[in-house]
Amino acid sequence: IQWAGLELNSRGSFFYADSSRIDLEFQASNEGLEILNFIFLGVLDLDGLEQIGEGSIGLEGSVEGPLDQEFLPQIKLQGQARDMAFRLKDYDTEVRAISFDFQASSGRRPGFRDAWISLTGLKAEATEGWILGSLEARGMPDPDFDLQLQGDFDLEGLERLIRNETVRNMRGRLSMDAVLEGKMDPDSDRLFGDEGRLELVLDQAAFVVGSDSIRDMNGMIRLDRNLVSSRDLELVYKGNQARLDVELENALHYALGYRRDVKAKLGLQSDLLRPGELLGDTALVSLLGEEVKGLQLELGAGITYEELHEFLTKDSIPKLVLLSLIHI
Questions:
Q1: Residue 110, preceding bond cis, omega within 30 degrees?
Q2: What is the C-alpha to C-alpha distance for residues 87 and 296, in angstroms, rounded to an integer?
C-alpha cells in the first residue's frame, strides 16, 4: 500500500455485508528520512539531506473498526527514532542523535473531533547546537495543544533543511524558549494560557528574502499571550543600520482567524538612514534628502478587524487611528 509517500507492508481483513468492518495492520518499509518527513508533515527538503550513522527510525499502525455513518474506522500510528542522523549535502553540517516517540490516532468520530497526536522526548544535536521539545494536541478542527521547545543552534543551511522557496543565505545564531499551551478556537476569545510565551534571541543573524537582505540582526523577539514585541532589535536592511522597538497586539490572533482588532507601536532609531535605498523610491530623496542623520521615529496605529480584513481581501485603504506622533 502507498500512502502519503510511504510504502506500507500490510495484513488484515475487510468484511462487506450488512455490517461492514476493516481490521488492518501495517508497517512502513521506507528509508529513515522518508519516515521522518512523514511524521514532520512533509516540511523537510529531502533532496538536500543524506542519512548517515547507525541510528534507526520506524513507523507502524493499524486501521480498525466498523464502516458506518456514525463512526469511522480508527487509524492509529506509532513511531520512534533512536540516534538517527543526517547531513546537509551542501554544508559541513550534521544533525545527530535524533530521538523521539510519536503516537497519533484519528479517533472514531467524523471530522476527527477525537483525533490526537503526541510527540515526546524530542532531542537532536547539530554541528553547532541542540534542540529539545514535545507536542501534544487533541481534537479537530480546533485543537487543544501544548508545545514546548528549547534550542540553540547555528542558522547556516537551515533553508536547505526545511522545504522553503522564500528565504535563503541564512547565517548567524538563534536560541529559543517556547512554552505554548492553549486552544486554537477562533470562535472563542482564548488562544494561549496565562503561561504561554515564546522567546527568540538572534545573534548576528542574516538572511535574504526575495531581493532584500537583512544582516547583523541582534536582539530578542518575544511572544507573550497576545503581544508580539521586540526591544532594542538591531539590524542592517539594504545597507541602513537601525534599532527597532516593536509591539504588535493581536496580530498573531488575527492571522489564525480570531476576530480581534490589531494595534501596533513602532520605535525606530538610526544614526544614518538613506531613504532612497531603504524604500526604493527616489522621489523621497527630494523630500528628505539623500541621508537622514540622527533619526528617532515613534508611531502607533490601530485598526479594527473589519477594516483590516477589508484591506487584505479587497485592497481598500483602512482608516488608521494614530496613537502617537512622528518625531524626526
A1: no
A2: 45
Instruction: State which amino acid sits at residue 5.
Output: G
Q: What secondary structure letter does DSSP report for 162?
A: B
Q: What is the pTM of this model?
A: 0.82
Q: Which three cell numbers mark 217?
A: 540582526
Please name the residue ranges forming H helices in 121-265. 158-161, 251-255
What Cα–Cα distance (Å) separates residue 61 from each residue in 20, 28, 103, 138, 268? 20, 9, 9, 18, 54
pLDDT for the residue numbered 285: 63
CA distance 81 to 76: 17
Cβ proximity of 45 and 52 under 8 Å:
no
Cα 72 off chain centre by: 31
**Sign of the alpha-carbon torsion through 168, 171, 172, 173:** positive
pLDDT-based confidence at 194, cuts 50/70/90? Answer: low
Report residue 3 as a C-alpha cell.
500512502
Q: How would residue 291 be classed by pLDDT, with cut points 50, 70 and 90?
A: confident
Burial 194-209 (b: 16+ CB within 10 A, else e): eebebebbbeebbbee
Strand, helix or coil for residue 130: strand
Report the first-to-last Cα separation within the chain, whole angstroms: 66
Spatial distance between the Cα atoms of 244 and 229, rounded to a whole number of angstroms? 10
CA distance 33 to 45: 10
Residue matched to cell numbers 490526537: 116
Q: Residue 137 — pLDDT band, cuts 50, 70, 90? A: very high
Residue pair 178/168 in contact (Cβ under 8 Å)? The answer is: no
Take residue 113 and report the three cell numbers written for it: 473531533
Hey, what's the cell of 249? 497586539
Please tell me which of 160-174, 176-190, 245-259 the model is most confident about, judged by mean pLDDT.
245-259
Average pLDDT, the chain: 85
pLDDT in tens, 53-88: 989 999 999 999 887 767 788 999 999 999 999 998
